Amino acid sequence: MKIKKAILTGGGRATRLYPITTTINKHLLPLANKPMIFHAIQKAVDAGITEIFINTNPGETELQKHIGDGGHWGIKIKYFEQTGGPQGIAHVVKEAEKFIGNDPFLYYLSDNVVLGNLKEYVEEFIQGRHDAMIALSKVDDARSFGVPVFDDAGKLVDTLEKPQNPPNNFAITGIYLFGPKLFFDAFKNIERSARGEYEIPSIYSYLLKNNYSVGYKEITGWWKDTGKAEDLLHASRLLLDNMSDSEFPNHGSLDSSAKITGKVHVGTGSRIGQNVVIDGPVIIAENCLLEDCHIGPYVTIAAGAEIKHARIMNSIILDNALVDAPMTVIDSLVGKNAQLIKRNKEPNGHRMIIGDKTIIEM
């Protein structure tokens, strides 16, 4: 048996990341200056997947524009809208039944970032002749996740969704494997949870209680569910740390006074002007302008952004943002076309146009 098909998530509203995600699909937010979903696609491709099906919100067009038909990765990518509103991540798979048919498949929540490849995970599923499989990771607090249940002998016997008193500190990550037809047979036998959604742990619970073989494997290294801003920043740091030196070329122009240490990528058309200090790891995309500023470590700056007179650390700056003020910016997400600028008029104070759920610490 080979796993050639995968479902990746591209929908949802990502309300915990408002206001950034009011104008951009969460899965297109940059991690290491690459759309988040690109990392998931590459992981799937590296694991042997040749066909990917991505669910989208109704009317979505941006994902399709950025990702295309899969030719960039040498595979096929198709899209399907999730109908009937949000009904849980198990319902996403049900909506893809016509694409999956009777084939085994990988289901990958694209906002999960993992280090290492999924090939070993897929191979263990195949070699172990399992009917389904889950990936686990240790967390400090498992109450926000699906959680496995083991008996006294260490055998997996059940899975729970967001238990208030978790039986252990393992979280079920957003990486799932299913054998032929099993998921859709199980889906017919589960009900909505208390929050009104079809849950993935309900699928696994059904399979376990009906004596199907459900394997599990702990993710080594690290795994991150990027549900909140601090999670995004953490994932960005981890990705930057694990990138090789060869992934940090300099294609821009540097003033002789600029001081650069560590791994720093400068994109084509970007200009690093006078009195700029950059402490890597840092990625600066195309057509950016930096003057009289101190950047890094752990900063990614998207295309067309301008940074002047500021100190920026551990932050993600999106396309065409402008930071032009003698300020220190840390642990921040700065959205597309956002402006952080100095007020030159009296009275001395701060003028702001702030969207819903914006967070500012001053």
Helix-strand blueprint:
Layout: E1 5-9, E2 30-31, E3 34-35, H1 36-46, E4 51-56, H2 62-67, E5 76-81, H3 89-95, H4 97-100, E6 105-108, E7 112-114, H5 119-127, E8 132-138, E9 146-150, E10 156-161, E11 170-178, H6 182-187, H7 200-209, E12 214-218, E13 223-225, H8 229-241, E14 253-254, E15 259-261, E16 264-266, E17 271-272, E18 277-279, E19 282-284, E20 289-291, E21 294-295, E22 299-301, E23 306-308, E24 311-313, E25 315-317, E26 322-324, E27 328-330, E28 333-334, E29 339-341
Parallel strand pairs: 1-4, 1-6, 4-5, 8-12, 14-17, 15-18, 16-19, 17-20, 18-21, 19-22, 20-23, 21-24, 22-25, 23-26, 24-27, 25-28, 26-29
Antiparallel strand pairs: 2-3, 6-11, 7-13, 8-11, 9-10
Radius of gyration based on Cα positions: 22 Å
Strand tally is 29
The gross shape turns out to be elongated
Structural class, by secondary structure, is alpha/beta
> How much is the average pLDDT?
89
Strand content: 25-35%
Which regions contain 5 or more consecutive residues with pLDDT less than 50? Answer: none
Descriptive terms for the model:
7-stranded mixed beta sheet, alpha/beta, 30% strand, 362 residues, Spore Coat Polysaccharide Biosynthesis Protein SpsA, Chain A, UDP N-Acetylglucosamine Acyltransferase, domain 1
Structure description:
The chain is α/β, with parallel strands linked by helices. The protein folds into 2 domains: 5-241, Spore Coat Polysaccharide Biosynthesis Protein SpsA, Chain A, CATH 3.90.550; 245-341, Hexapeptide repeat proteins (UDP N-Acetylglucosamine Acyltransferase, domain 1, 3 Solenoid). The chain contains 8 helices and 29 strands. It has a 7-stranded mixed sheet with strand order 5-4-1-6-11-8-12, sandwiched between helices. A 6-stranded parallel sheet has the order 14-17-20-23-26-29, with no helix packed on it. Strand 9 (146-150) and strand 10 (156-161) form a beta hairpin. The mean pLDDT is 89.
